[in-house]
Amino acid sequence: MSRIRRYGGIGGIALRQLVYHRVRTLLTILGIVLAVLSVTLLLGIGAGVLETGEQLVDSTERDLWISGGPTELNPESVGGFRNPIVDSHAVAAEIDARDDVSAAVPLAYNAVYISTDGEEFETVLSVGVGGSGPAISLQAGEGFSPGDTHLVDGEYTGPLNQEVIIGPDLADKKDLAPGDTLYLGGTLRNAKANEFSVVGISPTFSTLTGTETVTVRLSDLQTLTAMSLSDRSSLITVTVTDDADVETVHTKLQQAYPDFTIRTNQEQITAVLERQALILTGGLSLSLLALLAGIFFSLNLFLSLIYQQRTEFAIFRATGGSTGSILLLALLQAVVIALLGVSIGMLLTPIAATALEEVTIVITGFEGQ
């Protein structure tokens, strides 16, 4: 009983000390809260990058990604992008004809001019979609009409499809809705000459790229940006049949097309992240730094708390208190403060994460799913 009373007495002294020096105690708890938030938020950012990347790639409902190299900037070309795959419609049709493939769709990226009145133009990213196109989640409108009026028997001889799907941010910015018209082209001259009908509003590509986008038929984009002669695209996305194994199809396609790089969804995510190696390394370093800083900051706070009570501890020692009791007293104070600080920090993490996400969306325009 004497030992229990001793520990109870030390616990009472520890709590009274914390209550008596309430300002110092609150500041110490606040420091622990900030340390916890810095660690949880930075680690959460790293995990969120991977999770969002997987969601975005999976949302296209494609199994394999075929590329002929990176899409590069080319200031001398119309639109400013060099799409690496040539004869993309023919290659996609050849792959689509395989028994283990249900769809092969070429995609191209380029910059285009757009305007609602034909007078004031701005540049946005355009995505050209071939064939049936990847899964496009429509918020409004019916989407593209069936078939391709411009590409006829492999020749760009028909009239342009002149249909466009726009991102929700662009729709709000320009006050556009399905049925409205949009001037669009790779140069100011052909943009003024081509009116496209808005047939849908979709966040698919604006979410994937993190910027305002317009989506048109691949053949239209190729003609408007001078890519039709070589039938260029950035990627060919492939969906395998339900009874086919993705890895098996991957291996067969890579053997059949050795000049192309063919990736699964997970490999595509990895490739994107590798191109952002500097950013990821910085994020990892920040996470490690936050963890170490949190530990050292917390330790410094506890040592400062003990140092500031050196007079009280000296009096306690002079009145017969043992060194072990003083250590137990300091340990109890540290445990109480740590528990309160960590608990509050964990409770505030979801709120802080939501606020950080909103700020990120405002700054970058990128919104996870």
UniProtKB/TrEMBL annotation:
Q: Name one GO cellular component term.
A: plasma membrane
Source organism per entry reads: Halovenus salina
State the Pfam families in the record. Answer: FtsX, MacB_PCD
Localization:
Cell membrane
Q: What is this protein called?
A: ABC transporter permease
Does the record bear Transmembrane helix in its keywords? yes
Topology relative to the membrane: Multi-pass membrane protein
List, for all copies, the residue spans of the domain called MacB-like periplasmic core: 25-255
Among InterPro entries, the record links this protein to:
ABC3_permease_C (IPR003838), MacB_PCD (IPR025857), Macrolide_Exporter_MacB (IPR050250)
Indicate the transmembrane segments per the record.
Answer: 26-50, 277-305, 326-348
